Amino acid sequence: MTRPRQRSVPLLRESSSSIQSRPVRRRDPDQPSLPFDAMPSRVEPCLALLKQTVPQGPDWLYEVKWDGYRLAIHIEPRSIRILTRGGHDWTHRFPTIVAGARELGVTSCILDGEAVVLDEEGRSDFGALQRSLGGRGGKRISTESVFCAFDLLYFDGHDLTRTELSVRRHLLQDLIPETGYGAIRFSQDLDLAGEELLEHACHLGLEGIIAKRRDSPYRSGRLGDWQKIKCVQSDSFMIVGYEESASTRGGLGSLLLAGRKGQGWIYVGSVGTGFNRTEAEDLRKTLNRLQTKKPVVPLKGKRLVFSQPTLIAEIEFRGWTREGSLRHPSYKGLREIQDNAAVFDMTDATATKGRSTGD
């Protein structure tokens, strides 16, 4: 019997499908428990492999693809830590999520999920998340963020990484309050055919969906147990300079972008949309501080200003041209160094057909 839950995600509000995860009895928090397995200080995350088609069949479950920062919440008897994908401690930057984690009443656990800022329709907005944190390198705390939990790696003295996903998610759902409006929320899965779900997600303006093998253990790295299928392509690219403009916002006409190839860089075109005047001015000031006379890509132009390959931008685009440039790119924001975002890898010949190293 499926337990009714508040439907705070637009994909769920408009769907008649049922949620797969079933509740289990909540553990009595007063009951003593022995630490059978030592709690790890960090678990290298399981990453989703980009695919162009949705895997089909009863062996797969499907979730919304959240567009935010991948985080792990470590709850211990006397402390709570929030770690980024790269292992950096960002506990102080998400006080609302920390408070929500404390209210779960769990003695010890590790939650895997995504910090997001939601718009009025319940869609995750990466740009809004960046602004809430003060931009790349910002020092602000984010009170607007919520944590969408999709996996449980450790619980009350038990390492669950070798347990199949369906069991981990049953336990996880039982930990999360049923309201669906708190700082910690359960990333719900739907009993819908994968292709139908993807079409529905794209229609609602979501980034895409994640498909996961129900019986898979939690394996670190990008091994195919989790797969992401996007409505619109989005990946991380290195900013290697900019084109000056006397007529546009902040004197910045467009950003010059590059993908990684081995130890070098390949130019993939420029992006001139997605940032406002204030963002353009900040980008130009930062890139001027990183200015270099030796470009890392073979470009020439009187209005081109080259920079050291330091800033990583998240770019939304509609595919690739025959010349290997991004088609209709749009700037979404800068990635944090602590986020450990991987720059798009151009090494393989299939890169321009949709292969991705980002998450």
TrEMBL record:
It catalyses: ATP + (deoxyribonucleotide)n-3'-hydroxyl + 5'-phospho-(deoxyribonucleotide)m = (deoxyribonucleotide)n+m + AMP + diphosphate. GO terms for molecular function: ligase activity. Pfam families: DNA_ligase_A_C, DNA_ligase_A_M. InterPro entries: ATP-dep_DNA_ligase, DNA_ligase_ATP-dep_C, DNA_ligase_ATP-dep_cent, LigD_ligase_dom, NA-bd_OB-fold. Residues 138-230 form the ATP-dependent DNA ligase family profile domain. It comes from the Bacteria. It is an enzyme of class 6 (ligase). Keywords: Ligase. Residues 1-38 are annotated as: Disordered. Gene3D superfamilies: 3.30.1490.70, DNA ligase/mRNA capping enzyme (3.30.470.30), Nucleic acid-binding proteins (2.40.50.140). Its EC number is 6.5.1.1. Belongs to the ATP-dependent DNA ligase family. This is DNA ligase (ATP).
